[in-house]
Amino acid sequence: MTNKYRFFFTVLVLLLTCSLVHSPRTCAQPLTHVVQKGDTLWDICELYYGDPNLWPELWEMNQFVTNPHLLEPGDVLTLLENVPTLKTKEEKFAVQKPKVLEPEGPVGIDVSGLTNTDTLGYLSDVEAELWGNLFASEDDRMLLSPGDKVYVRITKQGARVEPGDEFSICQRSPLIKHPITGEEMGYVLTVRGRLVIEEPVGHTVEEGKLIPKKNTYKATLLSCFKTLSVGDSIVPYEPVSSPCVLPQSMNRSLVGHVVATQDETSILATSAVVYIDCGLDKGVQKGHLFQVIREHVVPDPDTKGFRLTKRPELILPDIHLATILVLESRKKTATAVVLSSEEDFPVGSPINALSWSGEPDILSKIATCSVE
Asked: Which is it for strands 267-268 and 149-154: parallel, antiparallel or unpaired?
């Protein structure tokens, strides 16, 4: 056999041997892994083989590694030849990728990042009737915390109180007057905490005998949103508004004003809780949006140079200051939170109801939630 044919015969034998005896990986280029920051032999074996206990064999395969727990990023490791690998790294991670859960039911916006809906309070269009007040604490402390035992005096005539009844602890503002018209609007009740009635307590002495007191009770503080103290008032607890709100288009023109604020602040911005002079009597419901505006009036430029005591005015489009979302509506007033503000605005600012066919841009910037 000539040298030429002997060479081709040898190559053919090698190829047949490689295909019949060895796996494709034996004849192919060995699989490798480029070390990334934080990699360990344990993790690499888990990734490629699903068995981290193979790490001693992988270490023996790569004898240049001096410390199996301290791999150098950029080093190239030769993987085991006779151990079947799992899916590729990309496929493995794709399988492990968490599923994105779609909200069930209508999608609303979550205002919990803007305000605590437990503390909203409200503007009452009548004198808010208080049921009583905290008159003492179990250990005579003036400043109170959740879990503290307190004593409550019920002052409302004919009120019936039972163990397990819950009350909001609140403060009532002075009489609120409309900042534009001067009309009496009512009182703002600011919620500061919550308590639950435990049992009737206390006795009085009449004619030398101990007589149970009928209007005093022991209670436990459930929550404190602001500083609580002896003397704070109480009213029956009302379930709070959910922080998940489904926005609604007003679909008609409605003008009103911001007439009061939760914290009696005069300048307002994003996340402020405000009270407006529009309520259920005007069709305002939870989820309605309003724009806070400033009227844009300037002197008429066509009258410049004329000797006039007062130049005629030119009315330009209103300036948008903020967007507010209604969280609760009562007969003549509503409670709202400022979703966003272009600039600070004062109490007394006018508002316009928002109507839309597509979702307003402001809503896309707020976390979503599933409306129950």
From this structure: unpaired
User: Phi and psi (nearest 5°) for 371?
Assistant: -80, 125
**Ranges for all domains in the chain classified under CATH 2.40.10.410:** 244-370
Task: Show the tokens assigned to 145.
Answer: 């915390």
Q: What is the distance between the alpha carbons of residues 182 and 203, in angstroms, rounded to a whole number? A: 47
Cα distance between residue 189 and residue 169, in whole Å: 10
CB–CB of 238/118 below 8 Å? Answer: no
Cα 121 from Cα 235, distance rounded (Å): 11
Question: Topology of 244-370 in CATH?
Answer: Thrombin, subunit H (2.40.10)
Could you give the residue range(s) of every CATH 3.10.350.10 domain in the chain? Answer: 3-95
Q: What is the DSSP letter of 40?
A: -
Give the Cα separation of 283 and 74 in Å (integer).
Answer: 67
Kindly report whether the global pTM for this prediction surpasses the value 0.70.
no
The H or E element containing residue 15 is: helix 3-20
Angle formed by the axes of helices 41-49 and 89-96, nearest 10°: 80
Other CB atoms within a 10 A radius of the CB of residue 15 amount to: 11
Distance of CA 331 to the CA centre of its chain: 28
Spatial CA neighbour of 127 closest among 82, 39, 188, 75: 188
Mean pLDDT in runs of 10 for the chain (372 residues)? 48 46 43 83 84 86 81 86 67 45 69 90 81 90 87 93 95 91 92 94 86 92 89 90 89 92 85 94 94 88 68 85 94 94 93 84 81 77
C-alpha 62/C-alpha 40 separation (Å) is 13
How many helices and strands in the chain, by DSSP H and E? 5, 25
Q: Which CATH superfamily is domain 3-95 in?
A: LysM domain (3.10.350.10)
